[in-house]
Design goal:
A hairpin with a 4-residue loop joins strand 2 and strand 3. The chain is elongated, with a radius of gyration of 28 Å. By secondary structure, the chain is α+β, with helices and mostly antiparallel strands. It has 11 helices and 4 strands. The relative contact order is 0.13. Helix content is 62%, strand content 9%.
Length: 348
């Protein structure tokens, strides 16, 4: 039953009168807006650099679950209780937000405070991104944060209940990360050049245009959505380029098969690209739906590092689906010259 419905949907797509090339300029507006806004953001606020490039500060807050501390304004919380957990989290976040800081990660932990005979007491461990340009500025901000947390929980007489803030330095790998992205781009261009000499120059030109469009559009969305950029950003670019190459490969394969069989002998290049796009649309939608579900699952896991990569890949998937569906037919039609086509004789 499901197979019959799939066949019916695929048939409707193939028989639709929608013309991708006719609307090419209209569909080009969105990518141009995204790229322009991305350039503006890059020149003004830059990337939302993650802790790999900025460093991070980490501290623990004892939640007084054993009621070890007494005093005015001191509460006891049990992190196993969702309501208590949210109250503790909100108190900490309010102090960070007052200092224009955001939580990078949070997890339940334990703390020992020997002065007050607290061993294995419940604590919340918080990590936030450093914002100072020098260590002195970072240490000064960390002192402000720690004093703010102490005041928020009423721990003025029990200052050890908030641990010292550990400094996690930035990774000196910004240029190394850029080098990886550049190497990937070089590899893609090398593949495109090979395809140009092996098959047709038009595939080279189309590959370059699509690669540039997909990369710049993905980076623009990363800037707009303020997705944190860490050392693993190269994975996002690689995944985006891989999806671009797959879309080009399947499009070109369909075109090549149709030309060899004489299927497109009496059709214009514009009609040919429209027909190929419609044929690929259904299965491509299923492929991208699988990517969507997979990335949403990774985002839901909320593991720092994994979440950022999944968000980036999700933006790359949105980009490559859009460009392959609505822009690739038009770009191919512009680059491809049908006079180069050589059909096999029908008796072969």
């Amino acid at each position: 039953m499901n197979n019959m419905k799939e066949v019916e949907v695929e048939k409707k797509i193939n028989e639709s009168k929608f013309n991708f090339n006719k609307n090419f300029l209209f569909f080009l507006i969105l990518p141009l807006i995204i790229i322009i806004v991305g350039v503006v953001l890059l020149c003004t606020v830059n990337f939302n650099l993650g802790t790999d490039f900025t460093g991070a500060s980490i501290f623990k807050v004892y939640v007084n679950n054993e009621a070890s501390f007494e005093g005015e304004g001191i509460e006891s919380f049990d992190l196993n209780d969702k309501s208590d957990y949210n109250k503790v989290y909100d108190k900490i976040v309010s102090v960070l937000h007052d200092n224009n800081l955001d939580v990078v990660s949070v997890r339940t932990s334990s703390i020992n405070i020997t002065n007050y005979h607290v061993y294995g007491g419940q604590a919340l461990e918080i990590e936030y991104k450093n914002t100072g340009d020098t260590k002195e500025e970072i240490y000064a901000m960390n002192d402000i944060v720690r004093n703010g947390i102490i005041a928020e929980f009423g721990y003025e007489n029990y200052q050890d209940a908030v641990s010292d803030i550990d400094l996690q330095p930035a990774t000196n790998g910004y240029w190394w990360s850029i080098g990886i992205v550049a190497a990937i781009m070089f590899a893609i261009i090398a593949v495109a050049i090979y395809m140009a000499f092996r098959f047709d120059v038009s595939i080279f030109i189309t590959a370059l245009l699509m690669t540039a469009l997909d990369v710049f559009m993905t980076i623009g969305l990363v800037l707009i959505c303020r997705v944190p950029v860490n050392m693993n950003f190269g994975i996002v670019i690689f995944a985006t380029l891989l999806m671009t190459i797959l879309n080009l490969f399947f499009f070109y394969s369909k075109a090549k098969d149709g030309l060899r069989s004489g299927k497109f002998e009496r059709t214009s290049v514009s009609e040919m690209s429209n027909m190929i796009t419609k044929v690929l649309s259904f299965k491509k939608s299923l492929f991208y739906a699988a990517i969507l579900l997979f990335t949403i699952l990774l985002i839901a896991i909320s593991v720092p590092g994994v979440r950022e990569v999944a968000l980036g890949i999700l933006l790359g998937a949105i980009t490559t689906f859009y460009t392959s569906e609505f822009l690739l037919p038009g770009i191919w039609s512009i680059c491809y010259h049908k006079k180069r086509i050589r059909h096999k004789p029908k008796n072969q």
